[in-house]
Design brief:
Chains A, B: Pfam families: EthR_C (PF21313). Two copies of one chain form a homodimer. Chain A is an all-alpha fold. Chain A contains eleven helices and no strands. Chain A is elongated. Chains A and B meet through α7, α9, α10 and α11 of A and α7, α9, α10 and α11 of B.
C-alpha cells in the first residue's frame, strides 16, 4: 500500500549512526528539482499547479494536526489528487518536506544583508530588531515546515541536518564577524570559533522562540517585548566587551 | 485494534483552538499517579517493574527512531509485555510521555538553587556555567522525552504547554530577579516583565542547544565552547547594564 512510503509505520528500520532511513527515501542532492517530476518530465502549467496543491495541502495539515499524523494519503486527499500523483512529484513525505525546506532556505539567505550592512553605532538595537523581526517573519510563514526540519535534524537525519547547518552558517558567520570586529575596536581579541559560538547562542534563542506558539508568547510576555529582548541580547553579545 | 489509541493514524481529529485530541486522551491532572494503575490498583513490586520496563522501552525507541514511529504496540513489544499491559498503566503514548515529563519536571526544579544562591561578583561566569552544565545534563539524560514535550507544547497541546510553562517559570523568574537586582545596583530600573522577557531569551537558547544532536555541536564548535558562550550570554544579560 502506498502509505507505507510515508515511513510512519516502519518500526524495524532504525536510525543508527545518524539515520539509515533518510538515505533510502531521499534522492541524491542533484536529483532535486521543482522543474521536473520523478519521471524526468518537465512540469507544465498543470504539473506545477498539482505540485503546489500538494505542498499547500501538507502545510494545511501540519497547521491543523501533528507531523505524527502526516501521510502521503492524507496530503493527497486534502489536495484532492490521487496518491499516485503525490509520488509523481515526491518520493515520500520526508522528501516533500525536504524540498519545501530547500525553498525556504533561499528566503533565509535574504537575512544576510541585515547583518552585513554597517549598524548604527548610536542605536544598534534598531538594526538588530530589524533582523529579529525579519527572522521571525520567515519562521511565522513557514513555522511547521521549519519545525519539521529541525526535528529531523536534531534526530540525526543527515540530509535535514546538512540543510539546517548550511542555512544557519552564513547568519552565524556574519553575527560572529560583528562580535569579532567590535572586540577588536576595543582592543580585545576573540577567536573566530568563540565569536561563532556566541553567535550560535543567539540564533538558538531566535529559533526556539520562533518555534513557540505565538499565542503562548503573547499570553506570557507579548511578542514585541520578546523581540526587543532578542535584539537587546544580540546588541549585548556584540557591544558588551568585558 | 489497540494501536489506534496511540493516535498516530487518526487523521480526522484535528487540533482546533489549541488541540482537541489531547483533552480526550489525557486524564484529568489529579488522576495521575505512578502509584496506581488505571484500574485504581496500587502498584506492587511487579507492577512497578512492568511500568518501568515500558517507560525504558519508550526511551529506547525514541533514541533509535523518530516519535513518528512510536506506538503502544511497538513499546510493548520492546518491553516484552502485552499491549493490554501497556493500557493498564497509560491511556496512550501521549499520556505515557506526559507522565514521564512530569517526573523530569521535578528534576528541572532542582536547578532553582543554582539561580537563587548569590553569584560570585568577581567571577559570575563560573556560577552561570554551573547552571548551564546542570541544565544540559538533565536534557542529555531525557533529551528525546523533553523534545516530545516541546513539540507537543509548540503544536498547541494544552497539557504539554501547561507543563512546559510551569516547569520553566521558576527558572525564568529567578534569572529575571538577577537581571532586575543588578540593574538596581547600577541605579537603573527594569520592569519585571522586561527582566523576564530577557530571561526567556536565555532559557530559549538553552533549550534549543540542548535539543541539538551533541555530535553536531561537537563537530562544529565543541560542547565546552558552546556551554561557555551560554554562560557568557547569561552574565552579559545580568551584568551589562546600558
Amino acid at each position: 500500500m502506498a502509505t507505507q512510503a510515508s515511513g510512519t509505520k516502519d518500526l524495524k528500520k532504525k536510525r543508527v549512526g545518524g539515520g539509515a532511513r533518510p538515505r533510502a527515501d531521499l534522492p541524491a542532492q542533484d536529483e532535486y528539482s521543482t522543474e521536473f517530476n520523478k519521471h524526468g518530465q518537465k512540469l507544465g502549467e498543470k504539473g506545477r499547479r498539482t505540485r503546489e496543491a500538494l505542498t499547500n495541502a501538507a502545510r494545511q495539515l501540519l497547521r491543523e494536526s501533528s507531523p505524527l499524523d502526516l501521510s502521503a494519503v492524507a496530503i493527497s486527499r486534502q489536495a484532492e489528487v490521487s496518491s499516485a500523483s503525490f509520488y509523481m512529484y515526491f518520493n515520500s513525505v520526508r522528501d516533500m518536506l525536504y524540498q519545501m525546506n530547500e525553498a525556504i532556505s533561499e528566503e533565509i539567505a535574504e537575512l544576510v544583508p541585515f547583518l552585513t550592512r554597517k549598524w548604527d553605532d548610536e542605536d544598534p538595537a534598531a538594526d538588530a530588531l530589524k533582523f529579529v523581526k525579519k527572522f521571525q517573519e520567515i519562521w511565522s510563514q513557514h513555522r511547521e515546515v521549519l519545525m519539521f526540519r529541525n526535528m529531523e535534524a536534531d534526530l540525526g537525519n543527515p540530509q535535514f541536518d546538512k540543510l539546517w547547518r548550511a542555512t544557519l552558517r552564513p547568519l552565524v558567520a556574519r553575527i560572529g564577524d560583528k562580535i569579532k570586529e567590535q572586540a577588536q575596536t576595543k582592543g580585545k581579541f576573540i577567536s573566530v570559533l568563540d565569536s561563532r559560538s556566541r553567535a550560535v547562542v543567539l540564533t538558538s534563542a531566535l529559533e526556539r522562540i520562533a518555534a513557540c506558539d505565538v499565542r503562548v508568547i503573547n499570553e506570557e510576555l507579548g511578542m514585541d517585548r520578546v523581540q526587543n529582548s532578542l535584539a537587546d541580547m544580540i546588541v549585548k553579545a556584540i557591544y558588551c566587551v568585558e
